Automatic annotation (TrEMBL):
Signal sequence interval, chain numbering: none
Gene Ontology terms for molecular function: ATP binding; hydrolase activity; kinase activity
Gene encoding the protein: kipI
Domain Carboxyltransferase: 2-211
Keywords: ATP-binding, Hydrolase, Kinase, Nucleotide-binding, Transferase
KW Thylakoid (keyword) present: no
Tree of life domain: Bacteria
Record Gene3D superfamilies: 3.30.1360.40, Cyclophilin-like
Pfam families assigned: CT_C_D
Official protein name in the record: Kinase A inhibitor
Length: 237
């Protein structure tokens, strides 16, 4: 089932579950794609998240009451189709992305503390992080910032008590069950365990290029300092 809630002057959020999961991620992708096509005339954006989808609409063409009725009708139609055709297989269709990571101490200020939290060696933390396949559940906070999960339970370190004023671009971070790579310099309270040399958001392209998308399967590949620099990584911040 679902629940609709007006979430702004020009948006309605559809809640599809209470907790994220692989099955919910696939359902959100299917519903989101269905609504983008069905609402092309009225919607300005359809934004998926962990357990919900927010539909932004053109206020010159519709309002909250009309959009709520329209969404209810579409979701009922979608549910009927799902009952007939099933929900498909997310494993085979997901895009796979590999991100190189330099885990050197000079770019990983929290790696030792994470190792102590997990009662593991630094090498074991790196191995566990790199052996995990993460899924992109949502985009937000900054352009290109992908919320990924699930971080292995041993590495689910809480956020910092006091966020940093400045986290460098490319910082590889974990916090609780989530993981991410900071696409640009920004404040941040997650634990920094490495640095990725790839650009996650490129505003010089038109439209801007966003490397990770909701549903992607992501692996982190350890690289040494030399390779990190060859791939465009920086150490000066």
């Amino acid at each position: 089932m679902w629940r609709l809630q007006v979430s702004g002057d020009e948006s309605i959020t559809i809640y599809l579950a209470e907790n994220p999961s692989e099955a919910i991620l696939r359902r959100i992708q299917l519903v989101g794609n269905f609504l983008r096509e069905a609402l092309a005339e009225w919607a300005t954006d359809v934004v998926p998240s962990y357990c919900s989808i927010t539909v932004y609409y053109d206020v010159l063409k519709s309002d909250a009451a009309v959009m709520s009725e329209r969404l209810t009708s579409l979701l009922e139609s979608f549910e009927s189709d799902i009952a007939t055709h099933g929900q498909g297989d997310s494993a085979g269709s997901a895009r796979r992305v590999e991100l190189p990571v330099f885990y050197g101490a000079e770019v990983a200020p929290d790696l030792q503390r994470v190792a102590k939290f997990a009662s593991l060696s630094v090498d074991d933390v790196i191995r566990l992080h790199a052996d995990t396949e993460f899924r992109v559940y949502a985009l937000g906070f900054r352009p290109g910032f992908a919320y990924m999960g699930d971080t292995p339970p041993k590495l689910q370190v809480p956020r910092l008590d006091t966020p940093r004023r400045r986290v460098p671009e490319g910082a590889v971070a974990i916090a609780g069950p989530q993981a991410a790579v900071y696409p640009c310099v920004s404040p941040g309270g997650w634990n920094l365990i490495g640095r990725c040399p790839l650009a996650l958001f490129d505003r010089t392209e038109n439209p801007p290029k966003v490397l990770l998308q909701v549903g992607d399967r992501v692996r982190f590949r350890p690289v040494n300092r030399e390779t990190y620099l060859e791939l465009g990584g920086v150490l000066d911040d």
